[in-house]
Automatic annotation (TrEMBL):
GO CC entries: cytoplasm; small ribosomal subunit
Descriptive protein name: Small ribosomal subunit protein uS14
PROSITE patterns, per the entry: RIBOSOMAL_S14
BP GO terms, sorted: translation
The UniProt record lists the keyword RNA-binding: yes
Gene: rpsN
Keywords noted in UniProt: Ribonucleoprotein, Ribosomal protein, RNA-binding, rRNA-binding
Length: 101
């Protein structure tokens, strides 16, 4: 089980990313537009820098939905390898059977 503070920090980041997504996308569009004036592009970059750092999508880290484990994460199932194996062994994941020989 991951530390609760880390899981909560990640939830806070996800909330900030959703909150600022539209504003950040609009500013990035202006900042990278080659047809815009140099002043407008510079102002857009300054406004981007003023936004909270945690509102950037690159700051997010995938975590297991059940345990909060940050490593060995399966995107499709949103689970860590440990929980995937445990749930598969218990028969909670349809079509998955634990291998034994």
């Amino acid at each position: 089980m991951a530390k609760k503070s880390m899981v909560e920090r990640e939830k806070k980041r996800q909330k900030l990313v959703q909150q600022y997504a539209a504003k950040r996308a609009a500013l990035k569009e202006v900042a990278t537009d080659p047809n815009a004036s140099m002043e407008d592009r510079f102002k857009a970059n300054l406004k981007l820098a003023e936004l909270p750092r945690n509102s950037s999508a690159t700051r997010l880290h995938n975590r297991c939905q059940l345990t909060g484990r940050p490593k060995a994460y399966y995107r499709k199932l949103q689970l860590s390898r440990i929980m995937l194996r445990e749930l598969g062994s218990n028969g909670h994941i349809p079509g998955m059977v634990k291998s034994s020989w």
